[in-house]
Design brief:
aldehyde dehydrogenase (NAD+) activity, Aldehyde Dehydrogenase, Chain A, domain 1, Aldehyde Dehydrogenase, Chain A, domain 2, NAD, metal-binding, Ald_DH/histidinol_DH, about 500 residues, oxidoreductase, alpha/beta
Length: about 500
């Protein structure tokens, strides 16, 4: 595609593109070939102040707009996203390095689904409170009020999807937002802002700033911001959450994981291998919920490894827009260095058995050889104390661990500070439910992996997060409660009466 649509990106607030006052820019890079895509302006503190002020001005009117009217605008935006799916997905592929076969079928689509879900929810009375008759002449009722100006901090692995996961419930609930995408994948943000505007969203309700962690830090600590929604790595999330909580801001944190996949002896081998591969190599392993610790019963060792090796031949690196490509590069040079260091550590220090892949790049055409490519890698005979087993790699690196009893597998699966996702493969659904109940994770799957529909609330346990996104519970993170007791008896009882 022509590069011209990608050359211009600006801040977006008060309903229009705005120049940055910092005079600084950073480059958006195509991970598949390391070629520059666009110059992105860095927001100065005064730019961030201006975006927040625009959101603050827009809040009174938007928060008082009837939910059904907000719903119609968001429905229109969801429709526009679907109409422009392929166009947006192409840019998403260039920016993130993900194959077009993925971005065109998942990224925009699932984001639009969440937007539509929350539009339907609020339009159908989803923000209604509760009413309780306390006694014959007294009632209690509750109302849900929007929070105010909220900050959304996006991640680089699912750029537009995450932007929609944050902005959809935020705006549906009557809040306004200042959104900062990751500095590694920023191209979607202005497009989303323009779609919202075209759909009828008033100026200032959704605003975009750009920059690295210092810009995000200034945004999230700003006194006008009432809520921070962050997606990213655990260490950064802890800092953001600590700062926000210390200033009495609401927070939602969607952080990292080191999720277990438990494959029982009776599991269908084909499904188990397919599930493990989806849990490790989809999006080149750059998924927070990835099941990178694959627990296989010792009796299935040979069969599982053999079938996995046969299927690894179907992981195809190549040009992003080739229909056969299902495996892209990593997102950046820095991330390639990190993942490569983990693979090297697994080979040289952890001494894990390398079953497939390893150091070096997959075979790609000459025009892609400068890209941030890594080989899909499988380690086996792993032990729980290995660094590649304990730490989140966020790349296409599978660790296979063998166990003897289900009790052992569950105990080892839970031996981690993280608790984002977990899953089990078995034909015994009663056993599956018993295991799922014991796994310390906020997102769990049985005989599948990775699907996260709009209707499903998702969030991590332990150090993997705080709060949930999506589903009916997701809207609760964007409202505050007001309870009122109305007494109709006509007199106020008092202990301060004359004796």
């Amino acid at each position: 595609m022509s590069s011209s649509p990608l050359l211009s990106r600006q801040l977006f607030y008060d309903g229009k593109p705005q120049p940055a006052s910092s005079g600084k820019t950073f480059q958006s890079i195509n991970p598949s070939n390391a070629a520059p895509l666009a110059e992105i302006p860095v927001a100065s503190q005064s730019d961030v102040d201006a975006a927040i002020a625009a959101a603050d001005r827009a809040f009174p009117s938007w928060s008082q707009t009837p939910p059904i009217a907000r719903s119609r605008i968001l429905q229109k935006a969801a429709s526009l996203l679907r109409e422009r799916n392929d166009e947006i997905a192409r840019v998403e592929s260039l920016d993130s390095g993900k194959a077009f076969t993925e971005t065109s079928t998942v990224d925009v689509v699932t984001g639009a689904d969440v937007l539509e879900y929350y539009a339907n929810l609020v339009g159908g009375g989803g923000l209604n409170g509760e009413t309780t008759q306390l006694r014959e002449d007294a009632w209690v009722f509750t109302k849900k009020a929007p929070l105010g100006v909220c900050a959304g901090i996006g991640a680089w692995n699912y750029p537009i999807q995450i932007a929609l996961w944050k902005s959809a419930p935020c705006l549906a609930a009557g809040n306004t937002m200042v959104y900062k995408p990751s500095e590694f994948t920023s191209l979607h943000a202005q497009t989303l802002a323009e779609i919202y505007l075209e759909a009828g969203l008033p100026a200032g309700v959704f605003n975009v700033i750009y920059g690295a962690g210092d810009v995000g830090g200034y945004l999230t600590s700003h006194p006008t911001i009432e809520k921070v929604s962050f997606t990213g790595q655990v260490s950064t999330g802890m800092k953001v959450a600590g700062s926000a909580a210390g200033n009495m801001k609401y927070v939602t944190m969607e952080l990292g994981g080191k999720s277990p996949v438990i494959i029982l002896p009776d599991a269908d081998l084909e499904n188990a291998v397919n599930g493990a591969m989806m849990a490790n190599f989809y999006s080149t392993g750059q998924v927070c919920t990835n099941g990178t610790r694959v627990f296989v019963h010792a009796s299935k060792k040979s069969a599982f490894e053999q079938r996995l090796l046969e299927k690894m031949q179907h992981v195809r690196a190549g040009p992003l827009f080739d229909e056969a490509t299902n495996f892209g590069p990593l997102s950046s040079a820095a991330h390639l260095e990190k993942v490569t260091a983990y693979i090297r550590h697994g080979i040289e220090t952890d001494k894990a058995k390398l079953l497939y892949g390893g150091l070096g790049k997959p075979q790609v055409s000459n025009d892609l050889e400068n890209g941030f490519w890594v080989r899909p890698t499988v380690f086996t005979d792993c032990t729980d104390d290995m660094r590649i087993v304990k730490e989140e790699i966020f790349g296409p690196v599978m660790s296979i661990l063998y166990y003897q009893t289900v009790e052992e597998a569950v105990k080892r699966a839970n031996t981690t500070e993280l608790g984002l996702a977990a899953g089990v493969f078995t034909k015994d659904l009663n056993m599956a439910h018993r295991i799922i109940d014991q796994l310390q994770a906020g997102i769990t799957w049985v005989n599948t992996w990775g699907e996260s529909p709009a209707e499903m609330a998702v969030g991590g346990w332990k150090n993997s997060g705080m709060g949930v996104e999506n589903g009916r519970r997701g809207i609760e993170a964007w409202v505050k409660n007001k309870s009122t007791l109305v007494d109709m008896c006509g007199e106020v009882p008092t202990v301060f009466a004359k004796l």
